[in-house]
Automatic annotation (TrEMBL):
This is Alpha-ketoglutarate-dependent dioxygenase AlkB-like domain-containing protein. 2-oxoglutarate binds at residues 511, 520. It holds the Pfam family 2OG-FeII_Oxy_2. Coiled coil: none annotated. One of its GO terms (biological process) is DNA alkylation repair. Residues 179-189 have a biased composition (Acidic residues). Substrate binds at residues 463-465, 523. One of its GO terms (molecular function) is broad specificity oxidative DNA demethylase activity. Residues 462-588 form the Alpha-ketoglutarate-dependent dioxygenase AlkB-like domain. It comes from Lentinula edodes. Residues 164-216 are annotated as: Disordered. InterPro entries: AlkB-like (IPR027450), AlkB-like_sf (IPR037151), ALKBH2 (IPR032852). It comes from the Eukaryota. Gene3D superfamilies: Alpha-ketoglutarate-dependent dioxygenase AlkB-like.
Length: 603
């Protein structure tokens, strides 16, 4: 796969698989799920390798891309942010990432590279050879046969209702803190990176690969290796004959690394050309059948059980019309971000019964208060009559920084209303009248946009942290589910706390399986002192921790609360947002409505 910027010739054919953002790649293409690194590997197999915008010395694109030499990890000296070796202008078609195809790694070796300041760095290099079972590379075609080809290459329906995909990559959410962006780009557990470059000199320990290649792959690798490979008489490791200047040991841990035994062990000079034999295409072992079709399978759109909130439904789509990878950004269907091709989802509302009784999986029933957090819990306070009865648990933060009220219900009255409301939310989300979307984060470190992990929709005064005016419907346009949620929140808050709170904004959030809202604060300009949220569906854990504390015990979660179907959680006091941040981690499918007062005349 390569990352493009500006290249030379106009692109005359479209890649079969391409994207504008890394999130689109990671969410839609199983062969590359690394948000930060340039290499994605799982189970000891390099699944995806990103040819970065920073080519290093002696990187190369030979045989029109059937042989690629590239560096791994580390910092290249070039400041030009483009993959200059691909001869076509992908950027001109808004293509930031294009999948080239399946390559075999034919060699891996280490080189010394001298920086401008004269320092020597070890750089790991790889040669990749095109696997011929795929036919010719797509950019070799003289005209775009993309559409006809897709029809034959693409499986129409995936084999899966697979809910066992990798742990969700924390693409994030986050509204205020830098840490949230970092969290957003967590790397999945099976995602590893090759070592970065490190200064070394002969005899010094150089970086080692964190994992060894499994034996069967090693033997494949050896069979593929050019006959000019030689074994070093000092370290016993084989190295390819890469340069015309002669053979030298290319194992960075060897004392005689980067030396020429046939020239009195002189160091290999800086000015090098490749050995002609090394640049020949080799006869490779046939490609394993599992690697022959890397086209993403199409999402399941018509599941037998009509459940469409499983993790598989959070994955992106590969458009069979134009090749673009797109995130699942709309609740009601998949939509190609390039040609707007739609894949409709045929589901049904999920009854709350099973969801609400899911086990939150923690060793406390309602709450956890951190030792030394200075939080005082008041005695449980019952309220209401037989129709409206409930309990309030109040947690007071130290030094007058505000309170958290957890309003629970224990009567049948609200329950029927809540179950119906949960269903109404789902119906309106499914028909698009309640447009749940994943909105781009306002700032992040990845190229291209980065969408929130969860879906949301705002009513009333625009909420700038998530989607702003583009995500906002006025109260006249508001879906009935949201209006009813606001009424319920106001009734319960006023009854339980015995004070009148007025709200003019409601952010509804919908979470499919494994989605969550990362740590953030609601410090929107003009925000009133009371923020109250209603939970519907599966239980969720809401955690609080100190804000702007980078390390140490104070950084730890100081309060956790289990939110259940129908609970209302009130953050009371401006200090709650000023001194604490919060996150919500649902156990499974859940909808929440959070009501605020935001001064409409804020500047
Ligand atoms: O209850 C939820 O799902 C999260 C609400 C929240 O934290 C927010 O909208 O700021």
């Amino acid at each position: 796969m390569l990352k493009a910027d500006v290249a030379l010739q106009e692109l005359h054919v479209m890649p079969h698989i391409w994207a504008e953002s890394r999130q689109e790649v990671c969410e839609s293409f199983d062969w590359f799920r690394s948000y930060q690194g340039g290499v994605y590997f799982a189970n000891n197999i390099t699944k995806g390798y990103l040819l970065s915008g920073f080519p290093a010395k002696r990187d190369g694109f030979f045989h029109n891309g059937k042989l690629i030499i590239s560096h791994g990890g580390g910092k290249a000296e070039s400041k030009i942010n483009l993959y200059a070796l691909f001869p076509y202008n992908l950027g001109g078609k808004n293509i930031t990432y294009a999948v080239l195809g399946v390559y075999n790694i034919t060699h891996a070796w280490a080189e010394y590279e001298t920086t401008k300041s004269g320092q020597k760095h070890v750089r790991f290099k790889f040669s990749f050879q095109w696997c011929k079972e795929q036919g010719e590379p797509w950019w070799h075609a003289t005209k775009d046969k993309f559409t006809e080809e897709r029809a034959t290459l693409m499986p129409v329906v995936s084999s899966t209702e697979d809910t066992t995909c990798d742990a969700s990559l924390e693409n994030d959410n986050a509204r205020t803190s830098e840490s949230d962006y970092e969290e957003a780009m967590d790397i999945s557990p099976d995602d590893e990176r090759i070592p970065s470059t490190t200064a070394a000199s002969p005899g010094n320990a150089a970086p080692k690969f964190s994992r060894r290649m499994p034996e069967d792959r090693v033997s494949t690798f050896r069979k593929n290796a050019a006959s000019a490979d030689r074994r070093c008489m000092y370290c016993g490791m084989r190295s390819p004959a890469v340069f015309s200047v002669g053979w030298g040991c290319l194992n960075a841990t060897c004392t005689y690394f980067w030396r020429l035994p046939e020239a009195g062990n002189d160091p290999i000079p800086d000015d090098l050309t490749f050995d002609e034999g090394f640049l020949q295409l080799q006869t490779l072992l046939p490609l394993d059948s599992g690697f022959r079709n890397i086209n993403p399978s199409q999402p399941v759109t018509n599941p037998r059980d009509k459940i469409t909130t499983l993790q598989a439904f959070t994955r992106g789509m590969h458009c069979i019309k134009c090749g673009r990878l797109s995130c699942r950004s709309k609740w009601e269907h998949w939509e190609c971000a390039n040609c707007q091709n739609v894949l409709a989802v045929n589901g049904a509302p999920r009854p709350v019964k099973v969801l609400k009784s899911l086990n939150p999986g923690v060793n406390f029933q309602w709450y956890f208060v951190g030792k030394d957090a200075g939080i005082i819990k008041s005695p449980v306070k019952p309220f209401g009559d037989h129709q409206t009865a409930g309990n309030v648990l109040t947690f007071s933060f130290p030094e007058g920084r505000g309170q958290i009220h957890h309003i629970q219900h224990n009567s049948m009255g609200p329950l029927v209303r809540l179950d119906t409301l949960f269903e109404e939310y789902q119906m309106q989300a499914a028909d698009g009248s309640l447009p749940f979307r994943r909105w781009p984060l306002r700032s992040h470190k990845l190229r291209g946009s980065l969408l929130t992990n969860y879906f949301s929709q705002n009513c009333g005064v625009p909420y700038h942290y998530v989607g702003g005016t583009a995500n906002t419907l006025t109260w006249e346009e508001a879906p009935t589910a949201v209006v009813k949620a606001k009424e319920f929140i106001e009734e319960r808050t006023n009854l339980a706390l015995n004070k009148q709170s007025e709200f003019n904004e409601v952010l509804s959030a919908a979470y499919m399986e494994k989605q969550k809202m990362s740590f953030h604060t609601d410090d929107e300009k003009g925000l009133g002192s009371v923020v109250a949220g209603l939970s519907l569906g599966s239980p969720a854990l809401m955690h609080f921790r100190r804000r702007n504390v980078k390390h140490g015990p104070e950084r730890k979660i100081c309060l956790s609360i289990v939110l259940r179907h129908g609970d209302v959680l009130v953050m009371d006091g401006t200090g709650v947002q000023q001194y604490y941040e919060h996150m919500v981690e649902p156990i499974n499918f859940r909808i929440a409505a959070t009501a605020r007062y935001i001064n409409p005349d804020r500047k």
